[in-house]
Design goal:
Strand content: under 5%
Order of helices and strands: HHHHHHHHHHHHH
Largest sheet: none
Shape: globular
CATH superfamily of the largest domain: MetI-like
CATH topology of the largest domain: MetI-like fold
Radius of gyration: 24 Å
Number of helices: 13
Helix content: over 70%
Number of strands: 0
CATH class of the largest domain: Mainly Alpha
């Protein structure tokens, strides 16, 4: 029975890691070998796709072409950085105090306001796209990086998740701090932020992965291709640049993998929603 479980897990791992392995090894194929194996995918051949374990003649030519002869790639990479990093920083400034207020204070309309946050959170981007477009156009922010940044800064998902974390902080700890003379601001910065840091980092990790690979918002709010992020680089590549596309996919995957590996522990804590208990 134990061996059967391991077999199921092994098969599942192969299904998950198989595409990633083909991506890594495929990025080492030159153009001719790639078309020989994947020609039917691009309509260049009527035969069958030929899968591979390792390239017959591995080459770094796609990476050299991408990193040395493709300046557009670096422009779009920098555009992604300029859109993702400020959005995450803005979420910390906006969402963390909002989540703390929902978790630790009582005020009139709190229940309905939080319900509104939840309702906005479950709405897909297509529902709010038109209203967001009209607001950004009125503010003359269309076709700028701020159009993408602002819509992400005021996302409601971080507030929802971080509220759960802040609620796990014992009331007795906060009351003890108040008895010692600590003000509300001191409690927030000295107790709330340190104990809620796991939730904050979990949200930042999730949102980085989402915004780094975003397609709909840049396509909706940006018209100038000079402002396009890296997530829009691959759809613009033609089939004769398939090897370049695989290499670009690997390079684009590296920051997301690095952030995921660094934030994996916090993601697990976010899923478990663990915290201090009285």
């Amino acid at each position: 029975m134990k061996g059967f479980k391991y077999m199921i897990l092994f098969c599942g791992g192969i299904l998950i890691l198989g595409p990633l392995f083909l991506l890594l090894t495929g990025s080492l194929l030159d153009g001719s070998e790639l078309m020989e194996k994947l020609g039917p995918v691009f309509g260049a051949d009527c035969g069958y796709v030929k899968f591979w374990i390792l390239p017959d003649y591995p080459t770094l030519k796609p990476y050299i072409e991408l990193l040395l002869d493709t300046p557009d790639f670096f422009v779009m990479f920098w555009n992604s950085v300029k859109e993702v990093v400020p959005a995450l920083a803005g979420q910390v400034v906006v969402s963390v105090p909002a989540a703390w207020s929902f978790a630790r204070y009582s005020f009139r309309g709190k229940r309905w306001l939080f319900f509104l946050y939840v309702a906005l959170m479950i709405m897909p981007f297509q529902v709010t796209m038109v209203s967001s477009y009209m607001v950004l156009r009125k503010l003359s922010l269309m076709d700028t990086h701020f159009a993408v940044i602002l819509t992400n800064v005021f996302s409601t998902l971080p507030v929802f998740i971080m509220t759960k974390f802040f609620k796990t902080i014992p009331n007795s700890l906060l009351e003890a701090a108040r008895l010692d003379g600590a003000g509300e601001a001191r409690i927030f910065f000295s107790i709330g932020l340190p104990l809620g840091s796991s939730g904050i980092l979990a949200v930042m990790t999730l949102n980085f992965l989402e915004y780094w690979n975003a397609l709909e918002q840049p396509l909706t709010f940006l018209k100038d291709k000079a402002l396009f992020p890296l997530s829009l680089y691959l759809p613009d590549i033609t089939e004769d640049k398939a090897a370049l596309a695989l290499a670009a996919s690997v390079v684009m995957l590296l920051p997301a993998m690095l952030v995921f590996l660094c934030g994996q522990e916090y993601l697990e804590q976010g899923i478990a929603a663990s915290g201090l208990k009285e």
